[in-house]
Amino acid sequence: GESVGLHLPTLSVQEGDNSIINCAYSNSASDYFIWYKQESGKGPQFIIDIRSNMDKRQGQRVTVLLNKTVKHLSLQIAATQPGDSAVYFCAERGVPADKLIFGTGTRLQVFP
Amino acid sequence: DTAVSQTPKYLVTQMGNDKSIKCEQNLGHDTMYWYKQDSKKFLKIMFSYNNKELIINETVPNRFSPKSPDKAHLNLHINSLELGDSAVYFCASSQGRGGEQYFGPGTRLTVT
């Protein structure tokens, strides 16, 4: 069946360091992946996406890497800030296209 | 200038009751969704509507009935509430099926 999962439930990093959040997916036919950030008491917020014909995509302080060979997705956050503290989800577009399959989430904690 | 809004934000009710959650979006989107997030933060799609037409209906008990009076609104009615219905329910919207989804702030439902 379809599933998207994360390796680490909680990640603690020091302010200023880089963060890497990982995600594994099982559907090799998936063509589109998204990272969401969910702050406490709020809904998920889009961060960055990547299509399966790409290996890497960069945004402002964030980079998403896609390794289709091992069905692995990662989110890199440069110079992590306290405001980055949140739960991060990867999501995979399923069938039909408006169906997003979310991973279990990783909590990122940033300490001074 | 709230994009996706939900009411109420908190809902506490007893088993067996019937309750509704309302969602409105002012983004002009044509597709709306309901998601359920459990206590472990797992986020799963329940329903999606495109131009008021039901597109996705995941394996949700028929006690849950979505209703879309127009493209800007998607309500969720729940009959005979059970303890397991306790969760945070998120509404989302997108322009087109497969478009970037914008999430509301969530409704925390507690069934006692």
Structure description:
The complex is a heterodimer of chains A (112) and B (112). Chain A has no helices and 11 strands. In chain A, strands 2, 4, 5, 9, 10 and 11 form a 6-stranded mixed β-sheet that branches. A 5-stranded antiparallel β-sheet of chain A has the order 1-3-8-7-6, with no helix packed on it. Chain A has strands at residues 4-5, 10-14, 19-25, 32-38, 45-51, 56-58, 62-67, 72-77, 86-93, 100-102, 106-111. Chain B is an all-beta fold and 112 residues long. Helices cover 0% and strands 56% of the residues of chain B. In chain B, the strands form 2 sheets. In chain B, strands 2, 4, 5, 6, 9, 10 and 11 form a 7-stranded mixed β-sheet that branches. Chain B has a 4-stranded antiparallel β-sheet with strand order 1-3-8-7, with no helix packed on it. In chain B, strand 7 (64-70) and strand 8 form a beta hairpin. The termini of chain B are far apart. The chains are: A mainly beta (112), B mainly beta (112). Chain A binds chain B through residues 32, 34, 38, 41-46, 49, 87, 89, 93, 96-102, 104-105, and chain B through 4, 31, 33, 40-45, 48, 50, 55-56, 90, 92, 94, 97-106.
